[in-house]
Amino acid sequence: MILTVTLNTALDITYRVRSLRPHTSHRVSDVIERPGGKGVNVARVLAALGHEVTVTGFAGGATGRAIRDRLADTTCVRDALVPIAGATRRTIAVVDELTGDTTQLNEPGPQISPTEWDTFLDRYAELLPSASAVSLSGSLPPGVPVGAYAGLVRSARTLGVPVLLDTSGEPLRRGVAARPDIIKPNADELAELTGSHEPLRATQDARRRGAHAVVASLGAEGLLAATPEGRWRATPPSRVHGNPTGAGDSAVAGLLSGLVKRLPWPERLARAVALSAATVKAPTAGEFDAPAYEELLGRVAVTSEVIAA
Amino acid sequence: MILTVTLNTALDITYRVRSLRPHTSHRVSDVIERPGGKGVNVARVLAALGHEVTVTGFAGGATGRAIRDRLADTTCVRDALVPIAGATRRTIAVVDELTGDTTQLNEPGPQISPTEWDTFLDRYAELLPSASAVSLSGSLPPGVPVGAYAGLVRSARTLGVPVLLDTSGEPLRRGVAARPDIIKPNADELAELTGSHEPLRATQDARRRGAHAVVASLGAEGLLAATPEGRWRATPPSRVHGNPTGAGDSAVAGLLSGLVKRLPWPERLARAVALSAATVKAPTAGEFDAPAYEELLGRVAVTSEVIAA
């Protein structure tokens, strides 16, 4: 199975309103709720691709129960979340029917106690030996040490389990130093890590800091990868219109899926870009359009990148 | 005990953000959750005044559980909510820290099945004989017949239990015809019911339509009452600044409290106005400031109103 870690899970709620106008009252016409947090999104896409996935991290309160109830209904996803005293955060996306634009409200995560963190570390140690790969995704809730991901990367590497890290800021900086197999920063996260706004140079720099492979997501321009086997750029066949929520998580799922199937890097990248574009195209935020994925997969352009000396 | 009916209960959530800007992402700095829906707010104020209160209506889903967990922690409030398959709605109040203004997002209520409605009617019939007064507050969730309040008013009157109705639109129109003891419309609801924008005339007209007593809430101007014993205007001592959320529900609690204590109308109105103003003054939406209430109570002006022939 593939293990996805989401320390800051969320109940993702989407509201549809006619037009959001600050300081007035709105009747919400449509409410959609899904389990969220980046690693949970990754798990959902992996499960849809037919992989067995185990989800771990934290869940608590009524929102945590809502997440677990829904995960129980998802085929191929096993819930190994650790219960906490605090309540799992909500995120609210308010979609404006007139413009299609989205306003996002993100609650802070619940406080994690030292005992809860220790319980998670035990759970992680139990799950790791049977994992074919592990992803560590998203922000850290309050109470989790800033070096948490670095420790989780080291444990995976000790057991020889390939580990992908997708986070930002200081947790990313520390995690990279622990030498993860793959990191998947977006352009901003990569620039923050390396100080360089030039993606080709920055991916190389991030490798020097410890990441074995760096796959940078560049929005509509696709992915740029610097790996021990070479450097590639993978781009979707045409500009895709829609909602980019979850596109990065779908790319992570594509990379993990290709990794456990031992596909060569260009095929992994094609899979990641096609899933990402099929997520932007899907009518529901964070879902992917399966026929669009199949159709896009053969049309992603993957080209070798050469760095001028 | 006093029975409060809330057919469309809600989990009221308050978010604090620095400044709400549509189509951007916001980090919520503070999250407050409370059981809500107008009748639940009335119950909380009655309990704070020392009355034994029973809350009924519907609750379901994770949001319903959150409401019930919190009600269990509230002294003097007994939870007699009827479980439903659907999920209790949320309301989200986004408070802008820069301006203090609030943006409101209200989910629609859950669908109530005919069986659930019948279960509620049985529960209501069980509770009514031991009630000293009953309030019927707020909107009707989908599936509840539009004449619901009219039926609930009739059952209460058959048993001689004083009944207060606080709703709007067609449910109010039908409910008034069933001859409730008190209705508490605001200026808009009263105008919609009677077609008159002149409050003195409109309160008289609402009495002719069936309400024994009409207490119109006129915002900062206080209350205007037309009763079988006379007509009064009750006004707070000075303009109160703050958040008017829940001020109407506090007024209802004041009227019920005065009713079961058999206070004369002017004292009931003074209590209602003081509670209402103390709610506007309280830092948390929907709570009332107890010392402010005590201080305001003696300073509300209640004057007889004479209608020109």
UniProtKB/TrEMBL annotation, chains A, B:
Q: Which GO terms describe its molecular function?
A: ATP binding; phosphofructokinase activity; tagatose-6-phosphate kinase activity
Q: Name one GO biological process term.
A: carbohydrate catabolic process
Which PANTHER family does its entry note?
1-PHOSPHOFRUCTOKINASE, 1-PHOSPHOFRUCTOKINASE-RELATED
Where does this protein come from, organism-wise? Streptomyces griseochromogenes
Q: What is its EC number?
A: 2.7.1.144
- Per UniProt, which keywords does this protein have? ATP-binding, Kinase, Nucleotide-binding, Transferase
- Record lineage: Bacteria, Bacillati, Actinomycetota, Actinomycetes, Kitasatosporales
Q: Which domain of life is it from?
A: Bacteria
What family is reported? Belongs to the carbohydrate kinase PfkB family.
Q: Which residues form the Carbohydrate kinase PfkB domain?
A: 12-287
Any Pfam family: PfkB
Task: Output the InterPro entries linked to this UniProt entry.
Answer: Carboh/pur_kinase_PfkB_CS, PfkB_dom, Ribokinase-like, Tagatose/fructose_Pkinase
| One term under GO cellular component | cytosol
Q: Where is this region: Disordered?
A: 227-246
- Record-given protein name: 1-phosphofructokinase
